Amino acid sequence: MIFTVLSKGLAGLSPDFLFTSMGGMTGAVDNASAESGGPVLGGAYHGIVGTLLITLWATIISVPIGLLTAVYLVEYSNGGPLSRAITFFVDVMTGIPSIVAGLFAAAFFGLVFGPGVRTGFVAAVALSVLMIPVVVRSTEEMLKIVPNELREASYALGVRKWRTILKVVVPTAISGIASGVTLAIARVIGETAPLLVTAGFVNTINMNVFAGWMTTLPTYIYRQLMSPTSPTNTDPSTQRAWAAALLLIIMVMLLNLGARLIARIFAPKTGR
Amino acid sequence: MSSKSIEGTGGAGRAGDKVFSGITLLAGCLILLVLFSVAVFLLWQALPTFMADSADISGGEGFFTYIWPLVIGTVIAAAIALAIATPVGIGVALFISHYAPRRMAQGLGYLIDLLAAIPSVVYGAWGMMVLAPALVGPYTWLAENAGWIPIFSGPASQTGKTMLTAGIVLSVMVLPIITSLTREIFLQTPKLHEEAALAMGATRWEMIRMAVFPFARPGVISAVMLGLGRALGETMAVALVLSSGGLIASLIRPGNQTIAAEIALNFPEAYGLRLSELIAAGLVLFLITLAVNVIARWIISRHKEFSGAN
Q1: How far is CA B234 from CA A15, A199, B49, B85, B264, in A?
Q2: A141 located within any domain
Q3: Residue A7 lies in a domain
Q4: Does A140 touch chain B (CB under 8 A)?
């Protein structure tokens, strides 16, 4: 499978593909390039921008919430009903179908701002619903393995609990937390279904997450396959889809590698 | 002077303590609130569908008649996926945990993680462009030679975009989940049990059957349930691979549809009652997956207590 994506995707991956959008690309253009054998025009720049912006916003929303919840679960709760409920529902949230998360965000913003609101920000909210549980789980695991001696040493020096958490516990676990967050990003960056119902689809570059529809790489792939720009010559669209798929896989791989690297670079600091 | 400053920082520290613990508590409650509001908003937006005249719903015979084929389609797709992924997943997990040499086990582990990391739309694209055309031949053969079985009745699809293809793609997607979870559970089997079985003269396979499987059964069941949850909610693979239609028994003809794919395909153009219909469909999907996940988690938590006693 990876071989297929590589062999079909490399052909379409060019600087042009990376830095042009689909603005002004019509079926006629594709027909012309298919007939003359010229290069496939049009690219995924708008998709790349959309993917990065939406994922960035999803991260901005979900990392603080996820981190603080994990801190609550590990440091403050005493295994009471509330913390057990949170743990349980975080587990359940991991299993929410991505499209339901998308529907939730669409329904929520539809109720607040009138029906049919589709912006990058709505998509970011949908993605953060998917992302929060992953962040909570990984952060929780990392905070749990911070040795208790460190906390006690800090208390013994008269440091307040919240300063202890911020200055001792979290910095000790930061490598694990960072790699957990990176993995969470890798998980949501490839999500398609929620974006389809929340961010819409456009051919032009949109840098503003709060207004207007946005395209991301996954929805770009989906659109190119399901409704090719030129119905008679689907090859250019297919090629663009494979190139975008390759790009997406490369991004996910880089994030995964990055997570491993972060974990490895910061690991000695824990002194264990 | 000095005592004053100590008191001063003490006061600020106490306030900071309160504020910080309040914030963390708030974040925790926010998560509960989010899950709760997911259910509430879906219900709110879906209400018009349940209120509406049954003739106005797509299909003209009420919401239940509309959603029923979709639920069945969703279940069929997930069932195919599990029927393939469960034996393979357990086999691979067993191989990694009990048979493979260490180096190879590591390599396989990486490969499984890699499979898990690939975005679903890429799987969908692969299923649509590569797998479906490749399966046309086998489907035609099945229709000719096994057509008397209802699920293989012909004429076979000439594009290969059928329920069976969608199920196969789904099985590749849930395989990493089942494999990695069951591997963890197989590895947790008490070494003493295994060694005792081997000491009694059991072969390796007998040891696995007598010591590993009974220990791991609840965990394996819940891993399969989690895979089921994923397969039920998976959208893009089905939306791209399946050429949808009404509910039919044959798996190798175009037809059938799942809830998630129905939403993804129709939502961008939907408005008014249709929109609330799709959200109602999403609500049904949410409830199904919620039930599956809760059961799976419950089995796992029971299993945890059980293994803690060992």
Answers
A1: 33, 19, 24, 15, 11
A2: yes
A3: no
A4: no
Q: What would the two tokens of residue B47 be? A: 């209400």
Does some domain include residue A102? yes
Q: Measured between alpha carbons, how far is B66 from B108 in angstroms, rounded to an integer?
A: 44
Asked whether residue A245 is domain-assigned, the answer is no
With tokens 């549809």, the residue in question is: B257
Q: What is the CATH number of the domain that holds A178?
A: 1.10.3720.10
Residues of A in contact with B269 (CB under 8 A): none
Q: Which residue range is the domain that position A132 belongs to?
A: 43-216
Asked if A192 contacts B236 with a C-beta cutoff of 8 angstroms, the reply is yes
Task: List chain B residues with CB under 8 Å of A71.
Answer: 24
A121-159 pLDDT, tens digit per residue, is 888 888 888 888 888 888 888 888 888 888 888 889 988
DSSP secondary structure of A76-133: I--S-HHHHHHHHHHHHHHTS-HHHHHHHHHHHHHHHH-TT---HHHHHHHHHHHHHH
How many whole angstroms separate alpha carbon A45 and alpha carbon A49? 6
For chain A, the domain total comes to: 1
Given a contact cutoff of 8 angstroms between Cβ atoms, the answer to whether B95 and B184 are in contact is no
Q: List the single residue in A67, A89, A96 with the smallest CB-CB distance to B32.
A: A89
Q: Does A269 have pLDDT greater than 80?
A: no
As for the ipTM of the complex, it is 0.73
